Amino acid sequence: MTDPHPLDPIFHPRGVAVVGASRDSRNPRGPGDWIHSLKAAGQPNIYPVNPKADEIDGLPAYARLTDIPGPVDHVISAIPAAYVLDMLEDASAKGVRSIHLFTAGFAETGIEDRLQLQQQLKSRAAELGIRLIGPNCLGLYVPEGRVSFAQQLPTDVGPVAFFSQSGTNASDVTYNGAVRGLRFSKVVSFGNAIDVSAAELIDYAAGDPGTEIIGAYIEGMKDARDFFSSLRRASKRKPVALLKGGLLPSGGRATQSHTASLAGSGDLWAAAARQANAVLVHNMQEMIDVLVGWRFGAVPAGPRLGLIVGGGGVSVQGADDVEREGLELPALSEHTLSRLAEVTPVAGTGIRNPVDTMSLWDGQRVRPTLDAVAEDPQVDAVIVQVGMSWGVGFFGGEEADVRQRMVAEIAEARQRHGIAIAMVVPFNMDHRHGTSNAALARMISEAGLPVYYSIRDAARAMKRLHTWHTRRIERSAT
């Protein structure tokens, strides 16, 4: 039996204390929000610490950590930076194993005495054996450990781990990824990373039995060699997507002021990702697109796509988008064309790839259409776009039933043929269309299918995933 990873205790706290918990529980933006977030996560042992309060949000409040009667393994620090060193001593006396420093005002300010304070904090925590997350970060979202940095996040556990120096990006992947069906094992916003680092987190995820897919947003680090070593080890075992912030001059300046990190060379990061066979993305939507593709089976066996849509202009533009992203739209065989002709209305349609057809909305024609395209020997994967604007209310009260049948048929086709299928539901700001498509996207993600917001987004993700898949096969053969 192997020893547990040094970070493992952080993710399974027996009790969580919020030092500096706000007395105003009605303020959703203040530190008191930590109490609400922990309650929403189902944390059974929450301890507000505030010497000026007897009770906060229905929970007994304590003047100091050492006054808390039960075990406290994890602390969320929401007090000013100047008081953190004193709190650290109380944490040690209480047996605390980790502290999340939501507190900002350290090295990222560029002020010399704040940089020295950060160094003192790091040194003293190491002496006491307490792990530090941050400063200047949102901390933990661990459904299994019943810890969360925000409300309204899923409490069910999933296989995706995400580590981010940015709190905003950690929120982005959890909220927007959840809408598209992603569920998480561990999400960590780690800010300045004076102790717990990207290298250590990725090393942990590589061996974590609850994690199958890894994503990370990095601004910079002092331990680049350790990070790249962890990245290589992790990528051999699990798929890894990487977003590097601050690769261009203006972004590099922002990185320095945000997390006190040095950005590094874009060429260096591209080379490191290629050597490790990690997928390097350019923004958070691309990050979520790739994670969704891994999670829900949008990894193409080859570069040749079949494109099925329900509109002529969409099919033409979609064909350009697929090829623009480096994938192919091969001509379908004569046998496939004859099969499609049997179930595709003649007027206003096309069947040569892209396949422009209304059959997606016909319960009797969905299956033969998908079967014909998926079984064509020239097709390695399929993109299906649904949710066009003209379709809002088109089927009246039967619309939900029609959509359910369509989604079920597509999910069954994927399983039947063992082929990668990506679904596209366009994003739209119009209220009626947007509400309709949001419901359709949820229906698709609940069926275990990957959802994208444009054909180009789906093609870009599939191109990256195909490249990753090809390299992985090549390396396994050597």
Characterise this structure:
The structure is a single chain. The protein is of the alpha/beta class and 478 residues long. The chain has three domains: 8-133, Rossmann fold (3-Layer(aba) Sandwich); 156-295, 3-Layer(aba) Sandwich (Rossmann fold); 305-477, Rossmann fold. Helices cover 41% and strands 15% of the residues. Helix 2 (84-94) links the parallel strand 5 (74-77) and strand 6 (98-101). The radius of gyration is 25 Å and the shape is elongated. The model is unreliable at 251-263 and 390-396 (pLDDT under 50).
Structure summary:
This protein has 15 helices and 18 strands.
Essential attributes:
478 residues; alpha/beta; Rossmann fold; 18 strands; 3 domains; 6-stranded mixed sheet; elongated; 5-stranded parallel sheet
With helices defined by DSSP (H or I, 4 residues minimum), what is the helix count?
15
In CATH, what is the homologous superfamily of the largest domain? Answer: Succinyl-CoA synthetase domains
Q: Taking Cα atoms only, what radius of gyration do you get, to the nearest Å?
A: 25 Å
Helix content: 40-55%
| Average predicted confidence as pLDDT | 88
- As residue ranges, the low-confidence spans are 251-263, 390-396
User: Remind me, CATH topology of the largest domain?
Assistant: Rossmann fold
What is the strand arrangement across the widest sheet? 8-10-9-11-12-13
CATH architecture term of the largest domain: 3-Layer(aba) Sandwich
How many extended strands?
18
